[in-house]
Amino acid sequence: MMALILYGDRHWESPYVFSCFVALLEKQIPFEVKEIGLDRGEHREPGYAKKTTLARVPAVEHEGYTLAESQAILEYLEEAFPEAPRLLPDDIRERARARMVLGWLRSDLLALRQERSTTTMFFAEHRTNRPLSRDARAAADRLLTIADRLIPEGCTQLFATWSIADADLAFMLHRLIVNGDHVPSRIRTYAQANWGRSSVQSYVQHPRPAYAPH
Prior knowledge:
Number of strands: 4
CATH topology of the largest domain: Glutathione S-transferase Yfyf (Class Pi), Chain A, domain 2
Order of helices and strands: EHEHEEHHHHHHHH
Number of domains: 2
Strand order of the largest sheet: 2-1-3-4
C-alpha cells in the first residue's frame, strides 16, 4: 500500500503541520513527509497549487486524493482510518468540545501568535524577552484563562483520553513557555506533559535548516 504523503514546511515550524504530523504518528498511519519551501515560494508553483487547491501547507495525499487545511485533514484521518487509535474522544459531547478547542486555537489569539511566533519556539536565536504589547498580553491572558477552565484539576489531558486537542493546546501554551513568559504552574504542568509525548517530540526534535524569512 502506498504511504500517505504529508506536505509540510521545510522549516518545521507550522502549528498546523505539527497537528497533522502528530495525528499521523498517534494513529500509526504509515506516511512520508515532503518538505515545501514557503520561503522559496514552492507552495505557489503550479503543480503544487493545482494538486492542493489552496496552495498551502499542510496538505495530505492519500490514494490519489489530496486535501489541505489542518482541521479538515484531522477529520479525514479520523474517518478514513477508523480502526486506528482515535484523535478525538469517543463521547459525543467530549468530541464536540475537542473540536471547539481546535477551532478556537485556529481562529483566535492573533496578536499572541504574531509576537510569540513559532520561529521563536524552534530557532533559539529568535527567542525574545520583549514585553508583550497590550493586545498580545490580552490574548495571552485569554489563553491562560480559557486553559484554566478547560484543564481538569490534577489532569494532564482535557478529556477521559488524550486527544489531538491536547497537543494543539500545549503547542499554543509553549509560545509563552519557551520565551519565558509567566504560565501558572498547573497549566505549565499540563503543557509540559503533552510536550513530552513521543509523537510531539518527534516533531519538536526534527532537524531544521537555518531559518529563512518567508
